[in-house]
Amino acid sequence: MLYFSKLKKEDLSKYALLTRGELPAEEYLAPELLLNEWGDIDSYILMNSDKEWIGWCAISSKGSVCNPDGTEFLCGVVFPQYRNQGYLKYLYKIYFDKSIGKPKLIAINFYHDKLINLSERYGFRPHQTNRIWNTYFCEKDMYPEEIRDLKLKELA
After folding, report:
1. Whole-model pTM above 0.85?
2. How far apart are the C-alpha atoms of 73 and 79, rounded to whole Å?
3. Which of 24, 95, 93 is nearest to 58 (CA)?
4. pLDDT digits (tens, 9 = 90+) for 103-135
5. 8-21 tens-digit pLDDT
6. What is the C-alpha separation between 7 and 109, in angstroms, rounded?
7. Which residues are 45's β-sheet partners?
8. HEC secondary structure over the chain
9. Surface-to-core class of residue 78, CB atoms within 10 Å of its CB (0-12 exposed, 13-18 middle, 19+ buried)
10. Residues facing residue 26 across a β-bridge
11. How far apart are CA 45 and CA 7, in angstroms?
């Protein structure tokens, strides 16, 4: 069984330590930014049964020009020791669970072929392209069967 919980303010230093070196500068959300946007950005920690951090993701609920009534998957990372073990799909599950009934948007750097392929497999379709990343859109009622029944429990 895997677990997830909202990132707490008291865990921001641990978050920074684990994520800073793992994310390109344009994807990194500094703790100060997360604090400033605390009401609009929800960050989640994915954990194993020992409550060790496996990964992290951030979801914006404030909408955007491209997706005014929806949510945006801002960033996510599976930490190095847990990569290539299928945990990324759990970050997507968190996103789909927290965005039920809302159109979904994800921005992906153009060089992330694996992430682009996975996103398209989960129902995201190309939306816009720019020089840093491409955006992909997913309809509000879409929920991929492949991740629907994954065992994942939210902790308070």
Report:
1. yes
2. 17
3. 95
4. 999 999 888 888 999 999 999 999 988 777 789
5. 999 999 999 999 99
6. 24
7. 5, 56
8. CEEEEECCHHHHHHHHHHHHHHCCCCCCCCHHHHHHCCCCEEEEEEECCCCCEEEEEEEECCCCCCCCCCEEEEEEEECHHHCCCCCHHHHHHHHHHHCCCCCEEEEEECCCHHHHHHHHHCCCEEEEECCCEEEEEECCCCCCHHHHCCCEEECC
9. buried
10. none
11. 6
Distance CA 147, CA 25 (A): 29
Give the torsion through C-alpha atoms of 93, 57, 36, 107, to 10 deg: -90
The two structure tokens encoding residue 33: 């930014």
Backbone angles phi, psi at 91, to 5 degrees: -65, -40
Listed in sequence order, the residues at least 6 apart from 27 whose beta carbon sits closer than 8 Å to its beta carbon are 75, 109
Q: How far apart are CA 105 and CA 134, in angstroms?
A: 10
